[in-house]
Amino acid sequence: MMGGAYSGDTAHNCLFVNPGNHNHWVTLTLEGVHSNRIALGAEICLTAETPTGERKLYRTVSTGGSFGNNPLRQEIGLGNATGIKQVSIHWPATGITQVVEGLSMDRFYRIREGDTQATPVTMPTFKLPGGPGASGASAPMVASSLITAR
Description:
It is a single chain. By secondary structure, the chain is mainly β. It has a domain at 24-121: Immunoglobulin-like, CATH 2.60.40. The chain has strands at residues 24-31, 43-50, 53-60, 74-79, 83-90, 97-100, 107-112, 119-121, 125-126, 141-142. The radius of gyration is 18 Å and the shape is globular. It starts with 23 loop residues before the first strand and ends in an 8-residue tail after the last strand.
């Protein structure tokens, strides 16, 4: 059961550890300039190169719905991709489609509306002592992916 902190809460905090796999990913945070700053409604088309040819992955920046929400950053799983050919972003206010190339897999990026290049973002990481990753076999945990359970 997931929940938030409140006064008198006696539940214990938990950290769920994902032991990982060999799949690739990229995380994009979009920033609107003429469109809204949090890029709601921006449509993303990522073209990935795979061993069997190109694959297109689509995302739309939204908050989710009903009783929950999604992060505004777009965490895109790339599976067995060998590279990222390009990312196209259709911005909602201007209708302009922006194309960004030169992105590496397994990285975090910030893309500002109108910029020709993405800016790499360094996220804080840590390893759990005695747990997954202690032997060096797993990648470091990213601090922004923590979940608190109640």
